Amino acid sequence: MKTISSKVVKKFITKPPSLLSSTASLTSIASFNVSNKAFPSSLLDDFTKFCYQRDLPRAMQALELMHTHCIRADCITYSELIKCCLARRAIQHGKRIHVHLFSNGHLPKTFLINILINMYVKFGLLHDAQDVFDKMPDRNVVSWTTMISAYSAAKLNDKALEFLVLMLREGVRPNMFTYSSVLRACDGLFNLRQLHCCIIKIGLDSDVFVRSALIDVYSRWGELENALRVFDEMVTGDLVVWSSIIAGFAQNSDGDEALRLFKRMKRAGFLAQQTTLTSVLRACTGLALLELGRQVHVHVLKYDQDLILNNALLDMYCKCGSLEDANAVFVRMLEKDVISWSTMIAGLAQNGYSKEALKLFESMKVLGIKPNYVTIVGVLFACSHAGLVEEGLYYFHSMKELFGIDPGREHYGCMIDLLGRAGRLSEAVDLINEKECEPDAVTWRALLNACRVHRNVDVAIHAAKQILRLDPQDAGTYVLLSNIYANTQRWNDVAEVRRAMTNRGIRKEPGCSWIEVSKQIHAFILGDRSHPQISEINIQLNQLIYKLMGVGYVPDTNFVLQDLEGEQMQDSLRYHSEKLAIVFGLMSLPRGQTIRIRKNLRICGDCHLFTKLLAKMEQRIIVIRDPVRYHHFQDGLCSCGDFW
Ligand code: ZN
Ligand code: ZN
């Protein structure tokens, strides 16, 4: 029997009364007498109304009638009724609803069964809950989680753990919700570590699934030391556990440790599986470790046509700025999905190959692959960087109609970038104002950036204030705002910004650049002299600056509209971390090899100019990836087109 919509029911009860099965029912319907409408009214409509009004007696009366006439309401209405029973602790009514839901061999939706289990749990009838649970054909995480937290709350810890193990055995992956509800349920009784002790006490700790679950839980709560301890206590290794620990570190952005463990795992003689390799690739991607990524690629080869792995490889090569490698993977892939295409399009666009990105988008459309949200972000990004303002506006305004995708935050960001780049600031402001939902900090940052480039102080102040309202911890924006005020001699405003920073304990993080040389990562921080070759690097840097000045380099000391530290001076500018990393790259890498640098802060105007001229003078390709974009320096030019 299917759920009957209220329209059908209306038709059903507007038939002559004689067709209804009993006069008793008729009296019942009439006796509701709640609406001023004359009988016959819609039974289902009344039922729904009673449920939402939390009128339990009348809702139950209507339910009995519906039961007699084999009428069913929708899941949401039943869940409202069950809530009502719970609120009044109406156990018998709850049981009656249970019978009705399963009557005539009907199987309610998993969603509704979960609500029923939850009802029994709340009534403290764990046997009934388990009975419903046992008979469920399709259990999902919610079902398992409900039972696990019920047992934990009832202090039946062994039972809760048993369910956790069974769940893992059935291959149902607990999600964060499962873990948090296990832990929440455990709260006060035992926290995570005590849960761990309990697992050891009942001898479950040797279970590979429990161990990997424990590692997952610790990792998800950021307790990586404990995760590693659980891992290290393991006597015999197991691939599942290795995967958990590696994924744990990779997801917590500790790529170094993830890679160290990956190497250990290989030494221990385990063959990496797809999932592990995917985690490791993500770690390489996060750190922009191209050489290590290439090493992992070798292991990926045996899963040559694994789509997920190939997509992870593509992403890694794109984010590491090696489009040649990305393209080689892309071309070799027999199976490509929309993620593969989007990754490649966005990768090309972000690395300065706008035309190629748009060409690839055309091929994708020809093949009939439907673009997704990310694809359009890549396309708009490409239009923006190629200066194709009209094309960008066309895609932005027609994306809903053409591809059924509503413009989101990232699309707006690209459009503000596009208009800002073209100097059409007032249109960018209009775009922000016409946005349906409230613009977020990222959108305002894109506008602020455009103002910075076009030196529009008034709009910049407005955008900066909006950013700080939404993200009061954004150090860069405070510094920028204070520099703008300083330049216009608004000293009171400068003092106020500085005070706000002090009060909120905000300090701008020091600039740091990383470069990978011989599979080792070298970090350079402004003012830090701990690198073993720092003296030589400084000497070389000074010589290079001297040589560059001979070909027209003038250090750019204009800090207006830059989010650099206020106390910048020409001398500290000289030793910005990316300059140190570039020089170290020139010293250590063979001629002809691309110098790839990752940076935590946006590159400053002086370093940008320095790198452009240096790339030409030294005939080197230099790639700098900052938190927002990629800069491909080659032959005196940068892929960002001097807008960043
Ligand atoms: Zn700099
Ligand atoms: Zn650039």
Report on this model:
The chain has 644 residues and is mainly alpha-helical. 64% of the residues lie in helices and 4% in strands. Among the domains are: 1-106; 512-638, no CATH class. The chain has helices at residues 6-13, 23-32, 43-52, 56-68, 75-87, 91-101, 110-122, 126-134, 141-153, 157-169, 176-186, 192-201, 208-220, 224-232, 239-251, 255-267, 274-287, 290-300, 307-319, 323-332, 338-350, 354-366, 373-385, 389-403, 409-421, 425-434, 441-454, 457-470, 475-487, 491-503, 534-550, 570-574, 577-588, 605-618; strands at residues 512-517, 520-525, 595-599, 622-625, 630-634, 637-638. The radius of gyration is 32 Å and the shape is globular. The two termini are 62 Å apart. Mean pLDDT is 80; it is low at 1-40. The structure holds zinc ion (ZN) (2 copies). The site of one zinc ion (ZN) has 5 residues, from loops. Its main location: mitochondrion. This is Pentatricopeptide repeat-containing protein. One of its GO terms (biological process) is RNA modification. PPR repeats lie at residues 140-174, 207-237, 238-272, 306-336, 337-371.
